[in-house]
């Protein structure tokens, strides 16, 4: 990942790169946070490209979980283009797994705890069920949820 980082820093001097606990993009300070990873970690460069994707698309605010999912999709699209231009390949299965993690999470948040009806988000922290009228609060959503490794069904 070190080589990739050097290239990205040279290509995008307006982005600040900083080591940290997890890969993330911080729009307020224009920082891409990266986790220092061993050279044989194949996923780390993909994560880095994804965060740079958010940075280049200037993603900052989102008002709903669904919108967050669309930002994730577009950040991966950008990451794929970047990867191509730098002679990297991102495994499409990895991208799908990451997006599936978001979709599962979105599904859980939007399912009514009373009647399990699929419901609508009314603001960034609240969902309302149009079937039974239940309202419930959710934690604030955030970009770039850590990738959860899913056991692949055989
Ligand atoms: Zn309900
Ligand atoms: Zn992301």
Question: How would you describe this structure to a colleague?
Answer:
With 154 residues, the chain is of the alpha+beta class. 42% of the residues lie in helices and 14% in strands. It folds into 2 domains: 2-110, Arc Repressor Mutant, subunit A; 112-142, no CATH class. It contains 4 helices and 6 strands. The model is unreliable at 146-154 (pLDDT under 50). Bound molecules: zinc ion (2 copies). One zinc ion is lined by residues 50, 54, 72, 75, 143-144.
Question: What are the key terms here?
Answer:
14% strand; Arc Repressor Mutant, subunit A; alpha+beta; binds zinc ion; 2 domains; 154 residues; 3-stranded antiparallel β-sheet; 3-stranded mixed β-sheet; disordered C terminus
Task: Draw up the topology in text.
Elements (H helix, E strand, L loop, with lengths): L1 H10 L4 E4 L4 E3 L4 E4 L8 H14 L8 H21 L6 H19 L9 E4 L2 E3 L6 E3 L17
Parallel strand pairs: 1-3
Antiparallel strand pairs: 2-3, 4-5, 5-6
Helix pairs in contact: 2-3, 3-4
This protein binds zinc ion (ZN) (2 copies).
The site of one zinc ion has 6 residues, from helix 2 and helix 3.
Short description:
With 154 residues, this protein is an alpha+beta fold. Helix content is 42%, strand content 14%. It folds into two domains: 2-110, Arc Repressor Mutant, subunit A (Orthogonal Bundle), CATH 1.10.10; 112-142, no CATH class.
Q: In what range is the share of β-strand residues?
A: 5-15%
Under the CATH scheme, the architecture of the largest domain is Orthogonal Bundle
SSE topology string: HEEEHHHEEE
| Overall strand count | 6
> What small molecules does the structure contain?
zinc ion
Largest sheet: 3 strands, mixed
Kindly provide the name of the CATH class of the largest domain: Mainly Alpha
Radius of gyration over all CA atoms, rounded: 17 Å
Whole-number mean pLDDT: 89
Helix amount: 40-55%
- CATH names the topology of the largest domain as Arc Repressor Mutant, subunit A
Widest sheet, order of strands = 1-3-2
User: Structural class given helices, strands, pairing?
Assistant: alpha+beta
Give start-end ranges of low-pLDDT stretches: 146-154
What is the approximate shape?
A: elongated
Discrete helix count: 4
The tally of domains stands at 2
Through-space gap between termini: 31 Å
Oligomer: single chain
């Amino acid at each position: 990942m070190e080589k990739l980082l050097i290239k990205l820093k040279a290509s995008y001097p307006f982005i600040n790169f900083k080591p940290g606990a997890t890969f993330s993009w911080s729009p307020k300070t224009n920082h891409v946070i990266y986790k220092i990873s061993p050279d044989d970690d194949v996923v780390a460069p993909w994560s880095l490209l994804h965060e740079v994707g958010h940075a280049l698309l200037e993603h900052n605010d989102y008002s709903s979980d669904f919108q967050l999912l669309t930002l994730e999709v577009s950040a991966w699209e950008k990451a794929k283009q970047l990867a191509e231009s730098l002679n990297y390949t991102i495994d499409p299965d990895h991208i799908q797994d990451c997006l599936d993690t978001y979709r599962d999470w979105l599904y859980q948040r939007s399912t009514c705890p009373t009647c399990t009806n699929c419901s609508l988000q009314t603001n960034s922290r609240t969902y309302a069920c149009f079937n039974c009228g239940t309202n419930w609060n959710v934690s604030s959503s955030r970009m770039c949820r850590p990738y959860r490794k899913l056991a692949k069904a055989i």
